[in-house]
User: Which sequence fits this backbone?
């Protein structure tokens, strides 16, 4: 999710991704997710579904719950660190782009993130991405614009 938000933020503030910065962002994010965020999320999720081992004693149950919340807080801090690292990769200056250029850049940037993730481009995904672009770029959720963005994704991914 951080990469999707980063794609839109970059489009809004700078436009298109630079190829090297994109490679660096993908490499860091993959390593960070695999080695830090996913293990924490897995531990937190496991604890949520396996609370019965701590239920026999209220003091143990409270400690178990507190530990799970601490892991959740740490997980969020790790995601914020990823956001900061992604921002530090950006070397291009802020640009003022038209709404049309910003939307086109967001579609372009997101396309590369989706391709790197090997997610299949479905109707539901294009609709979600169109909504993300509209929300992040603070655009009204106009069905005509949403349709145009979905069309851009389909053309870009063809």
Assistant:
């Amino acid at each position: 999710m951080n990469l999707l938000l980063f794609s839109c933020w970059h489009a809004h503030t700078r436009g298109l991704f630079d190829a090297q910065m994109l490679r660096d962002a993908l490499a860091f994010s993959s390593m960070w997710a695999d080695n830090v965020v996913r293990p924490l999320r897995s531990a937190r999720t496991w604890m949520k579904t396996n609370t019965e081992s701590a239920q026999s004693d209220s003091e143990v149950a409270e400690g178990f719950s507190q530990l799970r919340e601490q892991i959740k807080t740490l997980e969020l801090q790790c995601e914020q660190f990823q956001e900061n690292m992604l921002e530090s990769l950006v070397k291009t200056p802020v640009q003022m782009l038209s709404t049309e250029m910003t939307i086109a850049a967001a579609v372009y940037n997101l396309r590369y993130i989706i391709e790197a993730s090997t997610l299949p481009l479905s109707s539901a995904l294009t609709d979600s991405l169109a909504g993300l672009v509209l929300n992040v770029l603070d655009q009204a959720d106009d069905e005509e614009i949403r349709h145009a963005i979905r069309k851009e994704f389909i053309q870009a991914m063809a």
